[in-house]
Amino acid sequence: MNRPTEESAPAYIDTSKASIARVYDYAIGGKDNYEIDREIVELVRKLAPEASQAALDNRAFLIRVARYLATRTPITQFLDCGSGLPTAENTHQVVQRLRPEAKVVYVDNDPTVIAHGQALLEDSERTIFSSADIRKPDAVLGDPATAAFLDLDQPVALFHVSTLHHFADSDEPARVMAEYIDRLPVGSAVVIAHFFDPENEDTALARRLEEILSRSPMGSGYFRTLAQLESFFAGLEMLEPGIVPCYRWWPDGPQLDPEQPMQRCVAGGVGFKR
Ligand code: SAM
């Protein structure tokens, strides 16, 4: 695999600092990452060898939800907050294959993602990229390019997949989501996946992983409870089966391998504004 090296890294990338986007990229098998990013995943793997499977479950959840929304709802506008580095199947490829008229806005402020995101856009005029800070709904929805590209009076699918667990409590994730939801028109969908503390025998693992991630050079990775995750969907009508471990959300088929503990510590759900 052709990985970039610290020496060959472009000047806009600081390879002495871990990046959430690059750590995740390594976890799901990508090549856009550096030693400092890989070390974090390896630390997690010592405790949970299934870390990559849990990250892949999260990505597969995003793809299944994108497919569902593109085929089963009238939504044609997708706002993918914290979209991450381009991977095998990106949101615009999934939804535009099924609904060619769908428009997709990717939002991410990581320098590597910004560089790759712009390159990725060249394959579709119905896809744009914004470098807004996703902690600020005003900045995301008010970005002039996004506001001109999307019709914010028509339903939007807002994705916050594996983003809010990088918000500290002081970033007030529930308030931020309430602000997004308040500004979205009726008919919109909100998609969230998040590190999860199931408040059972898996709690010890969740708490230990939280400690490792928040003390790592990445600096964040909070495992929140069902009540906390529900608060991010406040006022929305949840789609069945509600908030569940990502691999259990309308899977493509039966789980063939035995489930591993960390797979139960990443949960997702979809809510609609009615
Ligand atoms: N959503 C993708 C997925 O689940 O497959 C990628 C998730 S990745 C773990 C989280 C992404 O959120 C990273 O690419 C990171 O750069 C981005 N991100 C984190 N905080 C952000 C912020 N304040 N503004 C914009 N992007 C942010």
Automatic annotation (TrEMBL):
SUPFAM superfamilies hit by this protein: S-adenosyl-L-methionine-dependent methyltransferases
- This chain belongs to the protein called SAM-dependent methyltransferase
Kindly state a single biological-process term from the GO annotations of this entry.
Answer: methylation
Organism this protein belongs to: Pseudonocardia nematodicida
Q: Which UniProt keywords apply?
A: Methyltransferase, Transferase
Q: From which domain of life does this come?
A: Bacteria
In terms of Pfam families, this protein maps to: Methyltransf_19 (PF04672)
- Keyword flag Transferase: yes
